[in-house]
Amino acid sequence: MESNAVLLESKSSPINLLNEMHQLRLLGHLCDVTVSVEYQGVRAEFVAHKAVLAATSKFFKEVFLNEKGMDGPRTNVFLNEVQVADFASFLEFVYTAKVEVEEDRVQRMLEIAEKLKCLDLSETCFQLKKQMLESVLLELQNFSESQSSEEESSTQPSALLESKAAAAAETDQADCPSAPPDHPADRPSSGASPEIPAAKSKEKM
């Protein structure tokens, strides 16, 4: 009686494999390639594993598959016009699937990813640049909206205050001079109002 097949899959194995290969590279163990990079007179050498570079970079894969013979225990690869810091970050990325760089270096990392034909790094840089651009656009939009709202709020109250002040000044000028002579309470007691009862009494007589 045949039993059903089951899947044995480890979620941590890929991460553990990368971490172990990274530690081997840092210690210089089992490394079979030396990459020399030079940029504007600055030169450095990095040791690595062919299998890792070939699996992550089509450039290195083509170099290693097309090499006719080994120069010695290690293969030497020379890269011109590649900055030392950028290649160090590239190595860290292909061995750990992550690397921390400054924002102004993202474009350079994208260029080295395209130069070395590293699809994973190229997609990662592209997505990060897209997020950075979207965040900048969002900040600009929020800034413009806040500026427009501030301008509206500053112009409307001032206009209202100016109109109210003008109206108040007009009413004050109109009321103040004419109030004392025309007001009934300010007229003398010997005016027209006391004479009205006297006229009525004469009519009765």
In short:
The chain is mainly alpha-helical. The chain has helices at residues 13-27, 50-56, 58-66, 84-96, 106-115, 119-182, 192-204, and strands spanning 33-39, 42-48, 75-80.
What does this structure look like?
A hairpin with a 2-residue loop joins strand 1 and strand 2 (42-48). The protein has a domain at 13-65 and 73-135: Potassium Channel Kv1.1, Chain A (2-Layer Sandwich). It is flat. A three-stranded mixed β-sheet has the order 2-1-3. Helix 2 (50-56) crosses helix 3 and helix 5 (106-115) packs antiparallel against helix 6 (119-182). Mean pLDDT is 81; it is low at 187-195 and 198-205. The chain has helices at 13-27, 50-56, 58-66, 84-96, 106-115, 119-182, 192-204, and strands at residues 33-39, 42-48, 75-80. It is mainly alpha-helical. It starts with 12 loop residues before the first helix and ends with a helix.
Q: Percent of residues in beta strands?
A: 5-15%
The profile of the biggest β sheet is: 3 strands, mixed
Residue stretches low in confidence (pLDDT < 50, at least 5 long) are 187-195, 198-205
How far the N terminus sits from the C terminus, by CA atoms, comes to 143 Å
Helix content: 55-70%
Give the C-alpha Rg.
44 Å
Q: CATH homologous superfamily of the domain at 13-65 and 73-135 - what is it?
A: Potassium Channel Kv1.1, Chain A
Shape, principal axes of CA atoms: flat
Provide the CATH topology of the domain at 13-65 and 73-135. Potassium Channel Kv1.1, Chain A
- Report the total helices: 7
CATH architecture grouping of the domain at 13-65 and 73-135: 2-Layer Sandwich
CATH class of the domain at 13-65 and 73-135: Alpha Beta
Specify the oligomeric state: single chain
Number of strands: 3
